[in-house]
Design brief:
36% helix, 14 helices, VC0802-like, 8-stranded mixed beta sheet, Carbamate kinase, alpha/beta, 6-stranded antiparallel beta sheet
Length: 434
């Protein structure tokens, strides 16, 4: 069995849905499809999910959202008409959704209706069975998926059946609609694949796989042929839009491979994401960068002779709303890098004095304007090309703040000044991949 998930661009209009249908029919093993809400048809277009969030916001402000919801309804009825379905095929569902949003059922209910309506429409077009995630996917208070979810899904899917499953949402213990974070249809697809013991989880989008660098930074970036789950995880931690991080966990536990494919070019091989891979042939799979970091550096003679001092300082930072993402340590020093967005306006200058007073530190510096770049690959440690990395950066006059190699066996982190991030990614890509 293959579980196929299609993103918003893949179901944006009737032409795209026809492509989806053709892909599903091309392989009889594709028996379950997970669908998103219709995405943008052009750069100037608006995603259905965004319109639904705005509908909820209007209701929250005390305004009936009928006018805006009429645009949502038109989107679906137009697609239905273009697919040759009766224009009124979703009238009952649309009326129900409009009433629910205006009744103030909240942002989770409102946003989830994009996938719900998309699922209803595609099920009608394909002649497949619609499955309701609200009845099957139980989401815990902490946002994780309850274990009983997998048994519920497995119980309703029968051999020989064909099923359409809306992504992005489930329900809480009291039965209320609950959504995952944005991009959560990837999570839904992964959950369904694990529940059914799928041989493969296909993730169909508008690109022919995962690129070795952000194409906005490297226009001719190559597509990765194969990568491991942990390579995905490490790249995503430093801003790489590879795959929804939470969507990896269910299939990773079950050892189910993921294939990232292009709905518009189904003949392209795409990218395989697998449990493990040998790094000899392709030692490095990607270069990425993430900006917007602040840096907090503390020093004290015999710092680590005081038991638990690092934990105490990090607890203090947490109380200030700061959760460091990367940490460097020396014999008498700690350097934390954290998203500067975590710092309330103007308070960055007070962090140093607060820590100095509380922990009697010798020196504290707290500033912003940093970016972190990452080079990741299962064969990174044995790659001879890695030796050219620092030289490539120096040649481009890029100031290196730090190099962290060894904390992770497959990733090297390089800190740079924020304005130089794009240049640093380009230099690393040229030196290590091109």
């Amino acid at each position: 069995m293959i579980v196929s998930k299609f993103g918003g661009s893949s179901v944006a209009d009737a032409d795209q849905i026809r492509k989806v249908a053709a892909i599903l029919k091309a392989d009889e093993n594709r028996t379950v499809v997970v669908v998103s809400a219709p995405g943008k048809r052009s750069k100037s277009d608006t995603k259905v999910t965004d319109m639904l969030y705005e509908c909820d916001a209007q209701v929250h402000r005390g305004v009936v959202c009928d006018e805006l919801f009429a645009q949502v309804s038109l989107r679906y009825t137009s697609i239905a008409k273009d697919l040759g379905l009766p224009e009124n095929i979703l009238d009952e569902a649309l009326s129900e959704v409009g009433r629910g949003i205006n009744a103030g059922l909240g942002p989770d209910y409102s946003a989830s209706r994009g996938e719900y309506l998309s699922g209803k429409l595609i099920a009608a077009y394909m002649g497949w069975t619609f499955l309701e995630p609200q009845d099957l996917v139980l989401i815990n208070e902490n946002g994780t998926v309850a274990e009983e979810t997998y048994g519920k899904i497995a119980a309703v899917v029968k051999e020989g059946g064909r099923y359409v499953f809306p992504g992005f949402y489930g329900s809480t213990a009291d039965g209320k609609v609950k959504t995952f974070s944005r991009g959560g249809s990837d999570i839904s697809g992964s959950i369904v694949a694990r529940a059914l013991g799928a041989a493969l989880y296909e993730n169909w989008t508008d690109v022919s796989g995962v690129f070795m660098a952000d194409p906005r930074l490297i226009a001719d970036a190559k597509v990765i042929t194969k990568m491991s789950y942990r390579e995905v995880r490490e790249l995503a931690a430093v801003g790489f839009s590879v795959f929804h991080e939470e969507a990896i966990a269910p299939v990773r536990e079950a050892g189910i491979p993921i294939q990232v494919k292009n709905t518009n070019k189904p003949q392209d091989a795409g990218t395989s994401i697998v449990s493990s891979r040998e790094g000899a042939e392709d030692p490095i799979v990607g270069v990425t960068g993430k900006s917007g970091y602040g840096r907090l550096s503390v020093q004290k003679l015999l710092l680590f002779k005081r038991p638990g001092i690092r934990h105490l300082m990090e607890t203090t930072l947490k109380a200030l709303g700061i959760t460091p993402e990367f940490t460097l340590t020396g014999i008498d020093s700690i350097v934390w890098f954290f998203p500067i967005s975590q710092v309330a306006g103007g308070s960055i200058s007070s962090i140093g004095s607060l820590l100095t007073n509380e922990f009697a530190l010798d020196d504290v510096k707290c500033d912003s304007g940093y970016a972190i770049t990452a080079i990741t690959g299962e064969g990174l440690g044995k790659s001879k090309r890695l030796a050219s990395m620092v030289g490539a950066l120096i040649e481009k006059n890029i100031e290196v703040e730090f190099v962290n190699l060894g904390a992770s066996p497959i990733t090297c982190l390089v800190g740079v000044q924020e304005p130089q991030m794009q240049s640093a990614v380009a230099a690393l890509y040229d030196a290590l991949i091109r």
